[in-house]
Amino acid sequence: MVKKYRKPLKLNLKKGTLTRWIKEKYGAKAFTDRGTIKMEYLKKALRDAPTLTTKRKVQFAINARKWKKR
Fold first, then answer.
1. Is the pLDDT reported for residue 2 higher than 80?
2. Of 21, 23, 37, 62, which is the most buried if we count CB atoms within 10 A?
3. pTM to 2 decimals?
4. Residue 5: left if φ>0, alpha if ψ -120 to 50, beta else—which one?
5. pLDDT tens across 4-55, in order?
6. What is the pLDDT of residue 18?
7. Would you state the pLDDT for residue 69?
8. 26 within 8 A of 41, measured Cβ to Cβ
9. What are the Cα distances from residue 47, in Å, to 17, 19, 52, 70?
10. Is 43 helix (H, G, I), strand (E, B) or coil?
């Protein structure tokens, strides 16, 4: 039996696209003083993401935050 592999994840990660979308949707309250996106708003954005691409961008941002803590 031949094992099927998932296609690699391809994201169009243009710099600032997720930040711009979150700023439009939630405003300045979604950001810390340093300018990073608050985890609370990343989780909200994951629920409210209009497209699959945006969901993947948000999930990547959440995962990157976890990787940084390791």
1. no
2. 37
3. 0.75
4. beta
5. 766 666 666 678 889 999 999 999 999 999 999 999 999 999 999 998 889 9
6. 92
7. 81
8. yes
9. 17, 16, 11, 25
10. helix
- The residue type at 17: T
Residue 16, Ramachandran bin (φ over 0: left; ψ between -120 and 50: alpha; else beta): left
Q: How many CB atoms lie within 10 A of CB 58?
A: 23
CA angle, 18 as apex, 41 and 39 as ends, to 5°? 25
Angle at CA 43, nearest 5°, toward 37 and 46? 105
> Which residue has tokens 């954005």?
45
What does DSSP assign to residue 30? G
Cα separation of 53 and 15, whole Å? Answer: 14
Query: Is 90 exceeded by the pLDDT of residue 63?
Result: yes
17 CB-contact burial (10 Å; exposed 0-12 / middle 13-18 / buried 19+): middle
What does the block give as tokens for 37?
């996106």
